[in-house]
């Protein structure tokens, strides 16, 4: 029943009663109109595990699926958040990946956000759920929808084979830095495979050493070199890997900031991160956001959204 992380804004509700919650949601959908405030109140203050219990209690009491019922009652971005909250974490990731590749065009940002930031165990579970839900291997779906070196990086991440130990091989770190330098800055054209081999395979501590060494050898930060050497989706995915290795909450804070800054809001990104990280590391993401942009994530969401959509996001954000 516990939350999936310990740095989330959404924590286990005390005195949890799934039957009472199910009845409250049922009441919220009875008659004309919907009591959105009740939906927000219940779902934004329960963990994913608790929401699963509410879904079971609802089905038992009403003989209908809670997600289906809410889906027909709600609309727009608010509905997207609510339906996301009702899913298990890997199911939600699989669902988002599937949506990113459905129909014409691909939302590459979604593939990058999810695959560059999840652990081996998370990726393995996403692979399994994807196959179960959609009857197709996620790798096949990705290969059918992407191409070139970008595709190869995603496929490498999908194998969930990254070293997750914390040991640093000093000599190897120096060699890795040298090889990346020689594959990029030091030559005409870029040998992207070298970047892939190091960035998609090595563990976090080792990579942090590689980045330090790289700075020494090239006089540049690895992120600057990637921006100079690559472009498009390939640049995005390599930068995302580096940023997640350095500071995952900061990576998500930057993605949230960019989703709201300027004209219009990239709601898909905003929703995906708020739903997926609410009970993992939202407290750290908020702290990084404030540190990086001098404003609270709460105030940004408040100024950029409206209605019930704003209300539920602010609850997930957990106050200023």
From TrEMBL:
GO terms for biological process: negative regulation of coagulation. InterPro entries: Annexin (IPR001464), Annexin_repeat (IPR018502), Annexin_repeat_CS (IPR018252), Annexin_sf (IPR037104), ANX5 (IPR002392). One of its GO terms (molecular function) is phosphatidylserine binding. It holds the Pfam family Annexin. Keywords: Annexin, Calcium, Calcium/phospholipid-binding, Repeat. PROSITE patterns: ANNEXIN_1, ANNEXIN_2. One of its GO terms (cellular component) is vesicle membrane. Belongs to the annexin family. A pair of annexin repeats may form one binding site for calcium and phospholipid. This is Annexin. It comes from Seriola lalandi dorsalis.
């Amino acid at each position: 029943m516990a939350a999936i992380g310990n740095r989330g804004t959404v924590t286990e509700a005390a005195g949890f009663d799934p039957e009472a919650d199910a009845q409250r949601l049922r009441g919220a959908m009875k008659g004309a109109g919907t009591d959105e405030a009740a939906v927000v109140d219940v779902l934004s203050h329960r963990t994913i595990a608790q929401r699963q219990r509410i879904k079971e209690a609802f089905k038992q009491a009403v003989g209908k699926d809670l997600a289906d019922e809410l889906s027909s009652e709600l609309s727009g971005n608010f509905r997207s958040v609510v339906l996301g909250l009702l899913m298990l974490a890997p199911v939600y990731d699989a669902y988002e990946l599937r949506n990113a590749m459905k129909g014409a065009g691909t939302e590459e940002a979604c593939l990058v956000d999810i695959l560059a930031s999840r652990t081996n165990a998370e990726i393995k579970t996403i692979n399994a759920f994807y196959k179960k839900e959609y009857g197709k291997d996620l790798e096949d779906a990705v290969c059918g929808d992407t191409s070139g070196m970008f595709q190869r990086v995603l496929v490498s991440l999908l194998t969930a084979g990254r070293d997750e130990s914390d040991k640093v091989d000093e000599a190897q770190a120096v060699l890795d830095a040298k090889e990346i330098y020689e594959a990029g800055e030091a030559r005409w054209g870029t040998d992207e495979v070298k970047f892939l081999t190091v960035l998609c395979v090595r563990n976090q501590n080792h990579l942090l050493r590689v980045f330090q060494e790289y700075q020494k050898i090239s006089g540049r930060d690895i992120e600057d070199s990637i921006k100079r050497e690559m472009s498009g989706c390939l640049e995005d995915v390599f930068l995302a890997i580096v940023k997640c290795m350095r500071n995952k909450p900061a990576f998500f804070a930057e993605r949230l900031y960019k989703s709201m800054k300027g004209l219009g809001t990239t709601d898909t990104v905003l929703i995906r991160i708020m739903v997926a990280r609410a009970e993992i590391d939202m407290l750290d993401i908020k702290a990084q956001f404030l540190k990086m942009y001098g404003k609270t994530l709460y105030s940004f969401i408040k100024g950029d959204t409206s209605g019930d959509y704003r209300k539920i996001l602010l609850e997930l954000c957990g106050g200023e």
